[in-house]
Amino acid sequence: MNAELLQDVVRQVLSEMKLESSNILSNEYNYGIFDDMEAAINASETAQRKLFECSVQQRNEFANVIRREVLKKDNLEMISRDAVEETEIGRFEDKILKNKVAAEKTPGMEDLTTRALTGKDGLMIEEYCPFGVIGSITPTTNPTETLINNSISMIVGGNTVVFSPHPRAKNVSIKLVKMMNKALEEYGAPRNMITMVKEPSIENTNLMMSNPKVKLLVATGGPFIVNTVLSSGKKAIGAGAGNPPVVVDETADIEKAAIDIVSGASFDNNVPCIAEKEVFAVDSISDMLIYHMKKNGAYEIVSQDMIEKLDKLVSQENGKPKTEFVGKSAKYILEKLGIYVDDSIRLIICRTSKNHHLVQEEMLMPILPIVSVSDVDIAIEYAYEAEHGNRHTAIMHSKNVEKLSKMAKKLEATIFVKNAPSYSGIGVGGEGHTTFTIAGPTGEGITSAKSFCRIRRCVMHDSFSIR
Ligand code: NAD
């Protein structure tokens, strides 16, 4: 039998045994990138068994390897630039900040606290333990941030992860997965803790969701994919869409509120799911608010005709945003309307009624409608309606604790930011850790390592109560 024929036979046998032939035959390591989904999942399962043998301190070190690699200046710039170029979404400088915060502020092993109880019957501990292989579906809007954030959290939790990135972020995702695996391998960590397929597609995502070796599904994206994983019959974590409203009342520091709103709503061209998407301002201060917004990077479209032209330009027939305008700059969008501005303009603002399409739809572009209302109670009511029960993120500028409390209770948002830009809710200039998977629908909230773990109990009878 010649060598080629022998390899074919070996391949056939391995394939029947559902083992991955290419790696075994050539011992070639492609840093987590596989031709087919089954091979990616099988490799992830093998890696998870090895990871499970490692101590929690070692897992934490693996997470630190990812942090260090991503934070190297060249790497940070490369993935940020590539993400903007490939997806044609967002701003390079803001992607750098988001990737940096994902690497620095995603919690490590300190998140996995053990609960212990002792008494006359001995000792009980409950610990956060791995699920095993996790399938994670990631969005175009935060392609690299979500990969970094999920990889750290999931590996610290003892899990491995098979990613299903958006096809429009394929190349940058491949580059980042390879980068993280390469650094991990050099450190001596198990291979293939982070995997994906060469050609992400809906078919591959479906294969991932139905594979019994994948024990937990995580979807970060719009309503369709969140509903899909929630109907999969598996344990699933859903991080879905928002439409964050901002309320500004007469007690707020109006100039600061204007600066904060422009900063938050223009951050990464408004694609973060937490970014300010519409404003409800009380009549007595709305002119002053707009005046200060215009002094700080906002361009106001005044004419009703032009506002309708803008809406038509960026919206599909079904009301959803046109993909080609998602995450584009204010300057780019204005140019399409024949309005030419310089780079200091980061946000388009316009006065609209409460029911305007730009208010009610999550547009994911730097267009911020402002609705004037007679008092703060109405503003809170309208904010509640515009948020559509997503319970995702809300922002309020006020010094009235009673009204702040009223808004917090009414909207039940996972993130409620007071007197700051929205991004302070994910640890950028605000207290607390970061996440790029905000799991409102399934309740894990600001996800971290423990969100991706199972709680298991261990009991020792009669011993180890040492009080
Ligand atoms: P999207 O829903 O179009 O895509 C998200 C992911 O789901 C992608 O990987 C995509 O390939 C996959 N997907 C979509 N439809 C699919 C289908 N029919 N079958 C299989 N896979 C499918 O969202 P997007 O445009 O990439 O991201 C923006 C949306 O995500 C916004 O609504 C935003 O609010 C939301 N988002 C939420 C969070 C959060 O943490 N809650 C974070 C980022 C983005």
UniProtKB/TrEMBL annotation:
SUPFAM superfamilies in alphabetical order: ALDH-like
EC number from the UniProt entry: 1.2.1.-
All residue ranges annotated as the Aldehyde dehydrogenase domain in the record: 35-430
Keyword NAD: yes
GO function terms (MF aspect): acetaldehyde dehydrogenase (acetylating) activity
Keywords on record: NAD, Oxidoreductase
Statement: the UniProt record of this protein carries the keyword Amino-acid biosynthesis: no
Origin superkingdom: Bacteria
PANTHER family reported in the protein's UniProt record: ALDEHYDE DEHYDROGENASE-RELATED
Name of this chain's protein: Aldehyde dehydrogenase (NAD) family protein
Species, as recorded: Peptoanaerobacter stomatis
